[in-house]
Amino acid sequence: MVLTRRVVCNTSTDNNQATILAKFQDLPYRLGKQDHECQYCGALRWGEERTKIKSKHQEETYSNCCQQGSVTLPWGEFEGPTVPDSLLKLYTGSDKDAKEFQQNITHYNNALSFTSLGVKVDQSVAGQKGINTFRVSGQLAHRIGSALPAAKKVPSYAQIYVVGDGGEGEVDVRLGHFKNKKLSKVVMLELQTILNDINPYAEFLKSSASILESQPSLRLMLKTLPPGKRELKTYNKPRPEDVAAIVESSETLDEKPRHIILHRKNNKLKHITDLSTGYLPLRYPLMLPFGSQQWDDNYVSPTAKQNNKSKPESTAVEIFRN
Description:
By secondary structure, the protein is an alpha+beta fold. Helix content is about 30%, strand content about 10%. It has a domain at about 80-285. The protein has twelve helices and ten strands. It is globular and about 75 Å long. The two termini are about 35 Å apart. This is Helitron helicase-like domain-containing protein.
């Protein structure tokens, strides 16, 4: 097949998936390997994504990952490994347990997540073969329930950390929510042990169980990082007291939406704002096992001054794109 260059879009209104696919129905498009590295942040890119090429040394420049070095993620300067060795082996290994984990990583993350995903999935594009397509219809939200399960209710998500025994009994509760998935009890126990050992949310919830049971007037607050200067350690490896607290039900709190208040017992689910720095680590503990905090609108890029940015705050788009 002879490949020729053509104009993809004549107008901005043509720049949409339906129009482009209709125009190039029989023409395969190949980007090649994703092996071009951004010289600033090290992100792997496709060559066609480059912003420009410096002719002298044929150096490629990319701007839509880190804005040519103007955006630095707090967890981009992590002290030590970003995941423990035992978890890394499951991510990269080739033995039986590692392969089973890699094939079912989404289910394992859901079983160990502190929050649930409130979303209507468009099944029309999911397909049965090839790469799975996850397309959302409507709004996506992260939700969390009460600290303790209601009477005669099976604990789920964060509640499992509070009431679980930390061992095989807790694993059985998690697996009970995924009976049709046939997940490995050995792998689940290993993952659960890892998080109970290093995750600040897991540690705090475990320690709060006896207090909540003995003092009904108490409730939990999952905190967001305060505004102002923050050390990288606070972002990357926060302590339990950095991310959570036990408060009196009668205590007047600063009810900003970025703080998450967990009442002792009820059947209500609460939506979590994406302005909370715990938005991602609560939902994706296997990606951020140390509870590393995410972007909020108080985050200031450490490279802002040296890059002469007029606005030092980094936007959510810049952070997630990086």
